[in-house]
Structure formats: structure tokens, C-alpha cells
Amino acid sequence: MKTKQLWICSAIALASSAAHAQSSVTLFGVVDLGVQYTKGAGAGSVRALSNGGLSTSRIGFRGTEDLGGGLRAGFWLEGSLNPDSGTGRATNTNNQPTGATTAGGLTFDRMSYVSLSHDSWGEVRLGHDFIPTHYNSIYFDPFNANGVARAGNLTFAGVGTGPLPTAITGSNTVSYWLPGKLGGVYGMAMAGTGENDSSVANSDDGNFAGARLGYASGPFDIAAAVTRSQFSSTAAIGNYTHANIGGTWDAGFAKFFALYNRVTVKLAAGTVRKNTAEIGAHIPAGEVGRIRLSYAVLDDRSDSGLRTAGGLARSGDDARQLGAGYVHNLSKRTALYGTYARISNKGEARYVVSGGAAPASGRSSSGWEFGVRHLF
Amino acid sequence: MKTKQLWICSAIALASSAAHAQSSVTLFGVVDLGVQYTKGAGAGSVRALSNGGLSTSRIGFRGTEDLGGGLRAGFWLEGSLNPDSGTGRATNTNNQPTGATTAGGLTFDRMSYVSLSHDSWGEVRLGHDFIPTHYNSIYFDPFNANGVARAGNLTFAGVGTGPLPTAITGSNTVSYWLPGKLGGVYGMAMAGTGENDSSVANSDDGNFAGARLGYASGPFDIAAAVTRSQFSSTAAIGNYTHANIGGTWDAGFAKFFALYNRVTVKLAAGTVRKNTAEIGAHIPAGEVGRIRLSYAVLDDRSDSGLRTAGGLARSGDDARQLGAGYVHNLSKRTALYGTYARISNKGEARYVVSGGAAPASGRSSSGWEFGVRHLF
Amino acid sequence: MKTKQLWICSAIALASSAAHAQSSVTLFGVVDLGVQYTKGAGAGSVRALSNGGLSTSRIGFRGTEDLGGGLRAGFWLEGSLNPDSGTGRATNTNNQPTGATTAGGLTFDRMSYVSLSHDSWGEVRLGHDFIPTHYNSIYFDPFNANGVARAGNLTFAGVGTGPLPTAITGSNTVSYWLPGKLGGVYGMAMAGTGENDSSVANSDDGNFAGARLGYASGPFDIAAAVTRSQFSSTAAIGNYTHANIGGTWDAGFAKFFALYNRVTVKLAAGTVRKNTAEIGAHIPAGEVGRIRLSYAVLDDRSDSGLRTAGGLARSGDDARQLGAGYVHNLSKRTALYGTYARISNKGEARYVVSGGAAPASGRSSSGWEFGVRHLF
């Protein structure tokens, strides 16, 4: 049967020797889609096909080459997908609003880098990658930063007058990662550039830097991170700092999650300050099931003058989010899931469950989704 | 020799056991290009490199996982290509003109879905896919909806004042497919949503639904389908219904084709009604050759007030199309082909052979192409 | 171990016989990123992450099928990447400014074609490909048309009032390649069409044709090429001719390079005429190192009236470029490199090292980059 197959092989491999036997190029991805219903109290509702309710849909290519002596080279190219329409997602070329690309075609907007790594020295990556704080947002949210109940519904919405280019990933970056054998200590640091000519105004715009340090041992995992992005053109988007700390504890009967975020954006009209705290748990249910729960609160301490600037929230425009879901694994690759989320807005806050219909000011947003996630 | 190759393998596979021996991830595609000359009587001509004269050029990734007990999970990501320029094709995110993406980058505009299927129960797909009626347009047209002589030259042109987002594929869909073992009966049903907030005007725009039912036995295959798309904003694009029925009969010395389409679009200025009937044949010519013939007539019964609205045709603006071609298979993967098509327009009709130069009103459009199609 | 892997196999292969044992589909690519600093004298500087300092970052799919009797079919789909942001690059659909696509999503902007080839007859390709002159620009520049020191910094900048669509690749092309067994003689010819309707004004715009002929024997390789693109709309972009001749001589202790380019663009405001000559060398340094050197001069003979038209250079606005670099191969796939380049501008010339900050008129541009290139 194997002789009937037309093998796909790397061009390099064909031209080189068995020395590459330990090297590999991997095609991988996720297709995760669900049916979703969301409702904004005092407003409308939306019936939608949701993307990535459990894991972000994506396609990627990655590989490593063993160079001997503990040294490895590697690459990673991974792009988000919206399989409900067959589109890819936009990325940003200069970490500034002017660098936003047009959404539609496939880009490698998640990770796109070349890497040199060593067992003892750690790893250096050049390219486009997640910023340090986003790793905490993924690992210490029981909903892994995905779906209607993700913690980011409260953390990142309305922090600037436009989308923050470096809220999740950054371009033009160099990062250093600690090696794996440090007795449980792990960490990385990253710097990126907006690539502006030094002779133009606000030439530091789009520069950013951050770091993450963690410790994992047995059932415990804890990490803290900070990322600071520079924007001197304070009219539209300001200096932006995101700091967070989180952890998990696997108690066997349940795995507990905690995550605290502090976001500050300096705008011309005032400073946005948002502090969010989330706790949650994964509870095994039978051999293949897992219940997911989370509760998050947002304490908005933004300057009061901001409300008129683009509908931004101010102090007192707080919110709470409750998330509950169930994941049923049909295999290691395929899972069914259902998730419910409800946000209670206060003051004039209008936070929305991911993908949902905006509620009236101070009213609740809620939604559920049922989906299938398939890995390849 | 195999040890010299650098295998590309799925991330999942590397991390898992021989239980996946029956699973696979497949890379596949088509590159089909030709030289084309088209002429519009009373107007100009175009010399072009044509795409997909025999099969739509594309690249895709698909896979299935055997979950046991007759159950399978799978995914499909397939995007059209224009290899004459290296571009992908646009798709549409909300089944409405506002959701049209910018053409250029690769998208999975043909099929992009996750699937659960069972030998006895059938299959459920979530994602982006061909609408029910388009399957008849492909299978019961001797030119398989491709090239200068495709039946769609008459069926879909000029039915709205802009392109119909759901004429071929739909986004945000759920579909159900009958299982394979029903004694020759096959079928599917599909619904899709425009994902509009219920509180906005025309919130049903972009919703659509359809179904297809067929019967195949021995040399016979016949199927009927209907797809209805909702558009309450009747100014630019109206409620759109496409119904068709078609079949093939393989008589040995030739395979005969028949296809009848009825398209209705309700615009503010009146109703577009187009009925097209096509007959055709594939005639084997030697061991590796195949002659393709088709004859199609369009009976336009649109309201007379439409002619001033965007140059749309009206009753009496009829047309006939003749198609003739030859396919020479060099192997199962590679074929040479040549196709000729001629459309005779009546009244003020200006139908054009695919990719061609527009003729003067009521004059003929004709063209030929010679190409190479290579599957991988 | 192999049984644990989930092989990716071609759809065709699975359905066909061992006759395809000699066929293959190949996934391949390059990820090349570096840190770069460039400075424009009398102006500013830029700190950037550079793409493709040694080789253009890219991803591609290609394959061949052995049809027997010396005949082969094949395809090639290869797109540039900017891995510093995860984007692909734009291409052009009609060889004219109106056909420029929006940058962002992955396109197969480098090569996208289907091919039939024969051991004795040569090869015919249909699709999108490099124009004949660009092959000389790659092979006879010691920096292979990549990075801060590439020869193209002088050759192609400022030759039109906008980017020339067919300066590097062309769409809608047919090309013929001589077979391999001609005693060292090699060559190809290409024609492409703008696909305009003959009834519109300037219907020849975007048509182009060219050829390349070379001879390689032992340590010598020499080739000449010419490409001529038609643009009758002389206001924005004019008839464009690029001719070049180049060669290499591998003397063992060093490999020497020489390249001469002549570029002419007929604009309404006058004719741009740029002649560039470059010499250079690759000098082996140890078993895995290679020093790269180049020196190029630009003699601008453009009409004097051009300077006011879009800042174009005119006669006397000459420049010289010095390039020096080192490549350290960690393996056949992975290399570290460093490159320095300096352009001395004369008159009011403002040529810039690739990716760099523009200098003041007549002042120098310089820059360096250190990077990692990984092939897969």
C-alpha cells in the first residue's frame, strides 16, 4: 500500500544525506467551528457560525534541523483561519495602525520566525510572534483565550480608540528563550521595532519590549509577564503597558486557574486603566470529558474624561463575566464542546461576549456555542 | 533512498500511536492553464492566458480520522488559484456584498469545513462550502462548470446588479449529507447565516438554505436541487432562488448530459427570471481521448423595466451557446485539452464566453482555448 | 518509528499505481531574517528586522510526473514571505499598474506555472514566472539580488514614476526553455500578455517579451538577456527595456562575478537611461565560510527634463555601491551571515541600500545586517 503513495518530501532532504534523519518538517493545523447564539440585553441577537470556540483555527508549517552539539535551527509559519468563510486573518507590518494589512488572504499572523536553539544556552528567535503577556492570557485562562467565555472579553476591549497592534502578537521582533533544563524555571524576553526612520516625528511608535518569567513544578505552574509598547502619537493610541500574573494548580480532582491583568493606555484625553482578575477550574468528567468554569471581574479605573472619546469606558464602568463549558474528547484530535458565557455590565460599560451582539449600555451580554474541534 | 528523504508528517501523528494508521492528511491540487482567444462581435478581442479551462486550479489540505464504530472526523481546506498571476480568489464572510474580501491572497474559498460522519447516519459539516445547486452545475454540465464553454456563461451572468455572494459557495453554513448506503439515493441540505444583528434593518440578508436529492444507479444519475438566498435590501440585490435538475446517462459509446436551471432574483426594479436548458455528451475517442459537446439555450423572462437598471437583460434578451472540445489524457493526472464556444445573443443580450471580450448588444461572443491540466 | 507517523500523501497517489514511484510533490521554503541598521547621510536611520538578506524568504509546492518516453509534466507554486510580519507579497494580474494586488495574504508571486518538458525538446511553461533578465540579476550578482548590497539597489530604483509591474516577474506568460543536453548552451524565451480588450485604448499595455541565452562549461558561465515591456500610456510608465549580460568564473581560490545592465524607460517627460556595471567575488574562507564582495557603478544618462517628474534622476545623478559580506554555513540548510553596503550618490541622486532610510540628495546611504537563513 505504501508503494502506491506519492510521498511529499522536502527539497532539501532529497539533495542531502541521512544526517537529516532526525530533522522533520511538519504540517499542522486546527479546524474548529461551532454554532453560536449571542444576545445583547436591550439590543439584538446574532446567530452565527463561530470560529475557534475551543482552539484557534489555523494552518502551519514548522521544522527543526539538528546541527549537532546540542544546536538546532528551526522555523515556524502559522496562520489563523476563519473556516466559516475560508479566510485568513490580518497581521500588522510595523506594529502601528498604518501597518494593518487587509483581512482575507492567508497570512502567518500567529507565528512566523526563524530560530537557533541550544540545549544549554536557550533559543533566539527572529520574526513575528506572540508578545510575552499573551502567553499568560492563553495558559492561565480556563478557556485558553478562545470562545465566548474567554478572559480577553474584559481585558482588551476598549483600551484604545482603535485596535492595539501589539495586543496579541508583535512584528519585527527578536526574542530570547531560556533553555529547558533550569529546574522548572522558564522565561523569555522580546523586543520589537516599528521600523520608523529616525528623522520622522514619533519615530519610536511601534517599538515594544517585554518579558515573561515562570516556574513549573509538579502540579504547580506560575508566571508573570509585562509588555510595553511605545506610541508617542498620543491622539489615537498611547503608550500601552500590559502586565499580568497567573498560575495553575492541578489538584487531581480539578485543575485550578488564576489570572490577574493590569492594562494601562495613555491617551491624549486621559489614561485608560483596567484591572481584571479571573479564577477558574477544569474538572474531569469521566474519562474523556472536562468541565470548564471561570469567573472574572473588571475594575475600570480610567480617567473620567475618556467617556466622550470614542465611547471608551471610565472608572466605574465595571463588568463581571461568568463562563461555563464542557469538552468531550472523541479522540486526542477531535473534541465536541459547548460553552456558555454571560457578562454583567455596570455603569455605561458595554462589554460583549466574543463574537456577540453589543448590548445597551450597562446591560448584559450573553451567548452560547456548540462546536467541533479537529486537529491535524 | 527513502532514508534520504525528510518526511513531512503531521504534528498529531508524531505524538500519537499506530491507532492513526487509517488516518491521513492529504495535500492536493490542480494547476490548469491555457492560451485563450476570445472575440466579441462588433467589439474587440482578447488574447489571454486562461485559468482552469478543464478543472479549476486549486490547492488544498484535507484529512480524515477514524474514530471507531463507523464514526469519522475530517476537515477540508481548499482554495482556488489563478496560476497565471499567482493569486488566490476572494471569498465572502457574511454572504452579503459588504462581506466580499479583496482578491489577491490565497483563501480557502472553495471548501473550508470540519466534518463528523458516520457510515449509517451520514455527515454533518460546519463551515464554507458549495451551495446545493452548484453540485448539479458541476456534474451535469459536460464542461463541468469550467472553461469558455461552461453552462454558467448563460445561467449566472447579469442576474443581479452586482455579483451574487451565494451563487456558488456560501459561508457560515451547517449542512447534512445522507449516508452512502441508501441504494443509490443521495442528498444533502444546507443552511447558512448572514450573521447580522437582529436589531439592524434587513437582518435576514445573507441567510440562505437549500437542498439536493439524487439517485444514481448503473449508467444513470439524476438529481434536483434548490437554493434560496434572502436579501431584503431589494435595491442592490434581491431574494434569489436557483433551482435546477440534471442527469447523465452513460450509454457506453457516449455519456449524455442534461441540465435545466431556473434562476429568479427579485430586484426593486423588477424580477429577473432566467431559464436555461443544456444538453451535451462526452464521446470516448480512442483509449485516452474524449470529445465534449454541449448546446444550451437561455429563455429570459425578466420584467421589461429591468433593462435600464444596470444594463440587465429582459424578456427576449435570449441566447444560445454551443460548446465543443477535446480532452487528451497523457496520464490520470495530466491532460491536454482544446475547447471552442460560441454564444449567439438575441435582443440586447450581451452574454460572453467565460473570460472573454464583451460583444456589442445582440451580437455573438466566441472563443477557444488550448491548455494543460495537471493534478497533484 | 515510521509506523507512528501520519503520512501526508497526494490524493492522486492514493488512487493510482506504482507507476508514480518516480513522481513526487515537494514542499519547500526559506525563512531568512536578520537585524538591520541603515543610515541615510543628512537624514535619518532605521533599525529594522530585515527579510531575505541572503535568500528570499518563501514557501512553495512543486512536483513532477514522469509520463514516459522522456516526457514529464510538472507544476510550481512559490510565494515570497515577509516572516518579520507573517505576510506574503503582492503580485500583478495584468502586468499593468491596474493589476497590482493588495499586499498581505500569501500569493504565489515568484513562480506559478504548469509545465511540459522533454529530454530532447525542452520545456514549455504556462503561468507566472521570472522574466528572462531577472535570471541574470540573480545568478551574476554576488549577493544574488538579495539584501542590503544587492545590485538592484542601483539598477531598478527610480526608473519609472511608479513600480514597474514586469521588473522581476511577469503574469500571463508562455515560455520555452531549451533542453539540458546542448553541450553547455542554455536559454529560454518568454512572452506575456496584458490581457486587454483590443477595442480599448493602449490595448498593448502589459504585453512583454524577452529571451535569455547562455553558455556554461567547466568554471565558466555567461549569459545575455533582454526583456521588453510595452506601455503606450507614456504618462505614468513607458515602454521599458532591460538588457543585461553577465558571467561567473570559478578560479578555485575565488569565484568572480560580472554583470552589466542597461535599462531604458520611455516616459512622456523624457527617457530614463541607466547603465550599471558590477564586479564581485565569492572567496572561500575555511570549509564552511564564504566572503562576498561587490562593486557597482551606475551611469545615469537620462534626459535632463526628468528631474522634476516625480523626483526621477537625470544624467549625472550617478552612484557607486560597495558591498561586503560573510556567510557561515552551519549546514547545507542553515547559514549565518553579515553584510555591509554603502552607496555613494552624486548630483541629486538618492539611491538607498535595500530597506534603508533615504539619504539627502547626493549623500551616501549605508547599512549592515546580520541574519539567519534556514532552508526547508
Automatic annotation (TrEMBL), chains A, B, C:
One Pfam match, by short name?
Porin_4
Q: What's the superkingdom here?
A: Bacteria
Which residues constitute the signal peptide according to the record?
Answer: 1-21
Membrane topology annotation: Multi-pass membrane protein
The record's region (Disordered) falls at 84-103
Q: What does the UniProt entry say about where the protein is found?
A: Cell outer membrane
Q: Which GO terms describe its biological process?
A: monoatomic ion transport
Give residue ranges for domain Porin.
10-347
Cited SUPFAM superfamilies: Porins (SSF56935)
Q: Name one GO cellular component term.
A: pore complex
UniProt keyword terms in alphabetical order: Cell outer membrane, Ion transport, Membrane, Porin, Signal, Transmembrane, Transmembrane beta strand, Transport
Q: Which Gene3D superfamilies match?
A: Porin
Q: Where is the composition biased (Polar residues)?
A: 84-101
Under the GO molecular function aspect, what terms does this record hold?
A: porin activity
Instruction: Describe the protein's quaternary organization and the partners it interacts with.
Output: Homotrimer.
- PANTHER family per the record? MAJOR OUTER MEMBRANE PROTEIN P.IA (PTHR34501:SF9), PROTEIN YDDL-RELATED (PTHR34501)
Q: What is this protein called?
A: Putative porin
- Identify the species of origin: Acidovorax soli
